[in-house]
Design brief:
about 450 residues; BirA Bifunctional Protein, domain 2; binds adenosine-5'-[phenylalaninyl-phosphate]; about 25% helix; EC 6.1.1.20; Phenylalanine--tRNA ligase, mitochondrial; alpha+beta; binds magnesium ion; protein biosynthesis; tRNA binding; Alpha-Beta Plaits
């Protein structure tokens, strides 16, 4: 019962996704312009930069150890996306401000981890000799709008398991993993890695199931494997660039995920800044135990494919991946890693919209899932802009926030930066779209425009 789509999708009784019908309810918030991306499958499109990036990373996870998969249908149950992974009931990721729901029990997956339990179950099969897998898929999130965030993006998930038969000691188990670690190529790249492998509170050893030495071995194998992915990516990117590139720098930082402990994120130094490229960790043993493989331990990771493709091909705006403009697509038609040549940057045009929040709503981040007073959430603003403006917005920023000293009412001002990647916007075009945003804010959020 969010205010945002009071009159959009759920007036329909069902939402159709490629011939499958999902009955709508008060959770439904997946709009047509988001659903229209399902059929694009750009990661399967020959010579698309995402496809090339996927293939390059998959080459680092070869058979027979790993199988490389894709999952082309993005609708999953809340059980798959959240419950199977141990997301607590009040986790913000479950909120309607963050996730696209088809109905209460069905979502557009927000991450490829939604398939972990299914893939582990599949590995519990003697005919399947694979010890690990990668899986690439489109994922969907209500999120910020800027040059590195888009509501539809792609992840590659990967995992590697080791059998630990009953009777095997922790020392033997760790030694087997170290032996596989020794087989991984070493590299001379600078890696910042200041933290111990486990932290007693934030990233505890799963001491009921694992020994410290096993986890040390698992994390070493995980880190080396993923560092090598970036060593490969950077060597390909440098070959493609005609100018000398800064040397690759990597950094491991502590993280939290409900389904791994310890958890880590990897950042890459790129264009003067640290860019988060993936999350990973030691798989929670309960998840493996519940997925038919209680005799195995292992690690998993999930990386953002666009983030990596952007640095590989030097692509400056995440919207470009969806472009069907020949000036974009034709640059990659040889299937080679090349540096993207911008085909002229069209002028930007920014417009501000300022409004008073209705007295019932407060601006905040901790939005509740359903029911109760609905706070005004940043992501609701983003969704309205996406609905009205489609892909002609480069970014949206909150530029002013103000509480009236007498009435206590709150006013927000957002700056919308309009820029098309494919043509020069006319004044009329921008004005019409901006007017639509204003009207939609008033009608669906009940704000008072200033
Ligand atoms: C996850 O989604 C976890 N499922 C990753 C994981 C898998 C952890 C397995 C442990 C084990 P996160 O929300 O941080 O984590 O997203 C993973 C990566 O996706 C990020 O590092 C980033 O590269 C990319 N990403 C996240 N949000 C966006 C977005 N809106 N647009 C583009 N890329 C994004
Ligand atoms: Mg993250």
């Amino acid at each position: 019962k969010s205010t945002i789509d009071a009159k959009s999708p759920q007036e329909e009784k069902v939402t159709n996704v490629e011939g499958k019908a999902y009955p709508t309810d008060h959770w439904t918030n997946a709009p047509p312009n988001i659903l229209s991306h399902v059929q694009r499958r750009i990661y399967l499109q020959e010579n698309h930069p995402l496809h090339l990036t996927r293939k390059l990373i998959e080459s680092q996870f070869p058979a027979p150890t790993y199988g490389n998969y894709t999952e082309s249908f993005p609708v999953v149950s809340t059980e798959q996306n959240f419950d199977s992974l141990g997301f607590p009931p009040d986790h913000p990721g479950r909120s309607r401000t963050d996730t696209y729901y088809l109905n209460e029990k069905t979502v557009l997956r927000t991450h490829t981890s939604a398939h972990q339990a299914d893939y582990f179950r599949r590995m519990n099969n003697d005919a399947n000799k694979e010890e690990g897998y990668t899986v690439v898929a489109d994922v969907y999130r209500r999120d910020a709008i800027d040059r590195s965030h888009y509501p539809v993006f792609h992840q590659m998930e990967g995992a590697r398991l080791w059998e630990r038969p009953e009777g095997m000691t922790a020392t033997e188990s760790a030694a087997r993993i170290w032996k596989d670690f020794e087989k991984l190529p070493s590299h001379g790249v600078e890696v910042e890695d200041p933290n111990p492998v486990t932290h007693p509170v934030r990233n505890p050893l799963q001491s009921k199931y694992h020994s410290q030495e096993e986890v040390e071995a698992l994390v070493a194998h995980l880190k080396r494997t993923l560092e090598n992915v970036f060593v490969k990516i950077f060597s390909e990117a440098s070959k493609a660039a005609n100018t000398p590139q800064d040397p690759l720098k990597l950094r491991w930082v502590e993280a939290y995920f409900p389904f791994t402990s310890p958890s880590l994120e990897l950042e890459v130094f790129w264009q003067g800044d640290w860019l988060e490229v993936l999350g990973c960790g030691v798989i929670k043993q309960d998840l493996l135990n519940n997925s038919g493989v209680p005799g195995r331990i292992g690690w998993a990771f999930g990386l953002g494919l666009e983030r990596i493709a952007m640095l590989l091909f030097n692509i400056p705006d995440i919207r470009l991946f969806w472009s069907t403009d020949a000036r974009f697509i034709s640059q990659f038609s040889d299937g080679k890693i090349v540096q993207f040549q911008p085909f002229s940057k069209y002028p930007e045009c920014y417009k501000d919209v300022a409004f008073w929040l209705s007295s019932a709503s407060t601006s905040g981040t901790g939005a509740s899932a359903a029911g109760g007073a609905v706070p005004f959430h940043d992501n609701d603003m983003m969704e309205i802009v996406r609905n009205c403006a489609k892909d002609i917005v480069e970014d949206v920023k909150l530029v002013d926030e103000f509480v009236h000293p007498k009435t206590g009412r709150k006013s927000l001002c957002y700056r919308i930066n309009y820029r098309s990647l494919e043509h020069t916007l006319t004044n009329k075009e921008v004005n019409d779209v901006h007017e639509k945003v204003r009207t939609s804010l008033k009608e669906s959020m009940g704000v008072e425009l200033r």
